[in-house]
Amino acid sequence: MYHLAKSVYFWATSKEEYSILLLGLDNAGKTTLLSTIKSLYNDTPAPAKPTVPTVGQNVATVSLDDMYLKIWDVGGQHALRSMWTSYYSVCHAIVFVVDGCDIGDDLGGGGGEGAGPVGRLEECRRTLESVLSHPSTASIPLLVLANKQDREDCVETVRIKEGLVRRVFEGERGGGVRDSRVLPVSALKGEGVREAVEWVRSRVRWNKEGRGPVMR
Ligand SMILES: Nc1nc2c(ncn2[C@@H]2O[C@H](COP(=O)(O)OP(=O)(O)OP(=O)(O)O)[C@@H](O)[C@H]2O)c(=O)[nH]1
Ligand SMILES: [Mg+2]
């Protein structure tokens, strides 16, 4: 009887928990985004100190009305990217953060002869392709964030959509059909962050049959 009551109590009081993986090149703004999400949803103070490059991982859980989001922020430096794969099989959505000021001004040109500087667009493209072509990320929702929108030298979101995301999806390593969206944010100022979290919330729920939550 005790065990039955305990189970009933657990199911009545528990919520679904989904894991979200923040990926992107070094300096994209992942750790800043995690801090901002924590301060918006958990009422923690906004970080006073600047971030340092992440070696290893940061994790935080935010409580929404109907679920917990457990958010993993991992280091984006080249040497650390091989560790990302160990998170793929347990994550319910991937948020790929792009530094919108560091992808160059040749988004439509394909990098051919005579093309202008391309910034880190090509590195971003190869990295995103590698994530999406991994079998464990198949059909997992993908949110691409065009970050640093507060800066004047940031490219327009549509250019990241066309020049990066569409190219990856149309390529051979695009990873098949999945829910995806590109949204502008400023992780530093918090602009667009609630909209990004809301998109993730709705998409992990939608994909629940594909990859189920953990009950907490
Ligand atoms: N202007 C502006 N700067 C930002 C924004 N987001 C992050 N930054 C800055 O970009 C730099 C890198 O931010 P991080 O959050 O540490 O980047 P990261 O993706 O975690 O980098 P790694 O840990 O090396 O993978 C820091 O100086 C941040 O203050 C933003 O929205 N606007
Ligand atoms: Mg970091």
UniProtKB/TrEMBL annotation:
<dbReference type="InterPro" id="IPR006689">
    <property type="entry name" value="Small_GTPase_ARF/SAR"/>
</dbReference>
<feature type="binding site">
    <location>
        <position position="31"/>
    </location>
    <ligand>
        <name>Mg(2+)</name>
    </ligand>
</feature>
<dbReference type="GO" id="GO:0005525">
    <property type="term" value="F:GTP binding"/>
</dbReference>
<dbReference type="GO" id="GO:0006886">
    <property type="term" value="P:intracellular protein transport"/>
</dbReference>
<keyword id="KW-0460">Magnesium</keyword>
<keyword id="KW-0342">GTP-binding</keyword>
<feature type="binding site">
    <location>
        <position position="54"/>
    </location>
    <ligand>
        <name>Mg(2+)</name>
    </ligand>
</feature>
<dbReference type="GO" id="GO:0005794">
    <property type="term" value="C:Golgi apparatus"/>
</dbReference>
<dbReference type="InterPro" id="IPR027417">
    <property type="entry name" value="P-loop_NTPase"/>
</dbReference>
<dbReference type="InterPro" id="IPR024156">
    <property type="entry name" value="Small_GTPase_ARF"/>
</dbReference>
<keyword id="KW-0547">Nucleotide-binding</keyword>
<feature type="binding site">
    <location>
        <begin position="24"/>
        <end position="31"/>
    </location>
    <ligand>
        <name>GTP</name>
    </ligand>
</feature>
<dbReference type="GO" id="GO:0034067">
    <property type="term" value="P:protein localization to Golgi apparatus"/>
</dbReference>
<protein>
    <submittedName>
        <fullName>Uncharacterized protein</fullName>
    </submittedName>
</protein>
<keyword id="KW-0479">Metal-binding</keyword>
<feature type="binding site">
    <location>
        <begin position="147"/>
        <end position="150"/>
    </location>
    <ligand>
        <name>GTP</name>
    </ligand>
</feature>
<dbReference type="Pfam" id="PF00025">
    <property type="entry name" value="Arf"/>
</dbReference>
<feature type="binding site">
    <location>
        <position position="76"/>
    </location>
    <ligand>
        <name>GTP</name>
    </ligand>
</feature>
<dbReference type="GO" id="GO:0043001">
    <property type="term" value="P:Golgi to plasma membrane protein transport"/>
</dbReference>
<dbReference type="GO" id="GO:0003924">
    <property type="term" value="F:GTPase activity"/>
</dbReference>
<dbReference type="GO" id="GO:0046872">
    <property type="term" value="F:metal ion binding"/>
</dbReference>
